[in-house]
UniProtKB/TrEMBL annotation:
InterPro entries: ArdA, ArdA_dom1, ArdA_dom3
Entry superkingdom: Bacteria
Gene3D superfamilies reported in the protein's UniProt record: Antirestriction protein ArdA, domain 1, Antirestriction protein ArdA, domain 3
Pfam family, one: ArdA
Protein name: Antirestriction protein ArdA
Region described as Disordered: 215-264
Biased composition (Polar residues): 251-264
Skewed-composition ranges (Basic and acidic residues): 222-235
C-alpha cells in the first residue's frame, strides 16, 4: 500500500508496474496517488522503464496495476489490473472536487450498488449524486418506519396516538424499503428519487478531458539522443578556459598613452 500515515490526502492510488520487466522476473513499479499531471506520470514511466528498451532492443510499452489503495468502500474489489490510467485519473480528480458531504453521499450510493460496475460508471455517478436521497441517521428498518410515521408526518399522530403502542415500525420500514428499492448502508438509508441520470462520459478516451490523459509513453531513446546532442554543443573545459582567458585580456587596462589621448 501507499504510504498513508495519518489522514490520507487522496482517495485512490495504484501501484503501476512495468509488464515487460515483470515477465522477465522483476517487479519494477511505483505507487501513483491520483490525480496526477501528464508530466508527473511521464516521470513515473521513466523511473520504471516504460519507454525504454530491453536487451534485445524491444521497447517496454505496457504496464499493469498490481495493487490499489482506495478509500471509497466498494470500489477496490471492482478494479482490475488493466484499468485505464486516464479513467482512474479522471475519477480521482472528480472525487477531489467534492466536499466531504458529497464524498459521503457518493460512498453511500456505491455501497448501494448503483452505477458502480466500472470506472466509467463511477465517473458518471460523480455528476449524478442528486439522483439519490441519503438519510444518514437511518440505519435499519425500524429507524425508517419511525422516521416516516413520527417525523415525516405520513400519518396524523394525533389520530393514531391511542394506537402508537401497536404500530410495528420495523415492518412498516421494511415494506417501504422494499417498495421503493431503498438500501440500508453504513452511511445511512439510500433511495433513488427517479431523477434523470445523465451520462457525461461515454467510455471513449476522446471523451476524457485532455488534462486527465496521462498514459502517453515517453520516448526515452529520443530524449537520450537529444541530451547527447545538447552535451556535444557545450564547449570543452579547455575551450572554456581559452575563452575566459581571451575575455580577461580584452578587459585589461587601456595603455597609458591611450589614456592621455582620451583626456585631451
Amino acid at each position: 500500500m501507499a504510504d498513508t500515515e495519518g489522514t490520507p490526502d487522496f482517495h485512490l492510488a495504484a501501484y503501476v508496474t512495468n509488464l515487460g520487466k515483470y515477465n522477465e522476473g522483476y517487479l519494477v513499479g511505483e505507487w501513483v496517488k491520483f490525480p496526477v499531471t501528464p508530466d508527473e506520470m511521464q516521470d513515473v514511466f521513466r523511473r520504471i522503464g516504460i519507454g525504454g528498451k530491453d536487451v534485445f532492443g524491444s521497447p517496454y510499452e505496457e504496464w499493469f496495476i498490481t495493487d490499489y489503495d482506495c478509500y471509497i468502500d466498494g470500489i477496490y474489489d471492482m478494479l482490475s489490473e488493466y484499468e485505464s490510467l486516464d479513467e482512474l485519473n479522471y475519477l480521482a480528480d472528480k472525487l477531489d472536487e467534492m466536499s466531504d458531504a458529497e464524498v459521503q453521499h457518493f460512498k453511500a450510493i456505491v455501497k448501494m450498488g448503483e452505477h458502480s460496475d466500472s470506472v466509467q460508471d463511477l465517473i458518471n455517478l460523480t455528476e449524478n449524486l442528486d439522483c439519490y436521497e441519503i438519510y444518514p441517521d437511518i440505519t435499519d428498518e425500524y429507524d425508517l418506519g419511525y422516521y416516516l410515521i413520527n417525523e415525516l408526518g405520513c400519518y396524523d399522530m394525533n389520530t393514531l396516538k391511542a394506537l402508537e403502542n401497536y404500530i410495528d415500525y420495523k415492518e412498516y420500514g421494511d415494506d417501504t424499503a422494499l417498495n421503493e428499492n431503498g438500501v440500508f448502508t453504513d452511511y445511512g438509508y439510500v433511495v433513488c428519487n427517479q431523477s434523470d441520470f445523465k451520462e457525461i462520459y461515454n467510455g471513449s478516451r476522446d471523451d476524457i478531458p485532455d488534462e486527465y490523459r496521462i498514459s502517453s509513453i515517453p520516448d526515452i531513446e529520443a530524449e537520450q539522443k537529444d541530451a547527447v546532442k545538447t552535451e556535444e554543443k557545450k564547449p570543452s573545459i579547455r575551450q572554456q578556459l581559452a575563452e575566459n582567458k581571451s575575455k580577461s585580456e580584452k578587459t585589461q587596462s587601456v595603455p597609458l598613452r591611450q589614456k592621455n589621448d582620451l583626456s585631451l
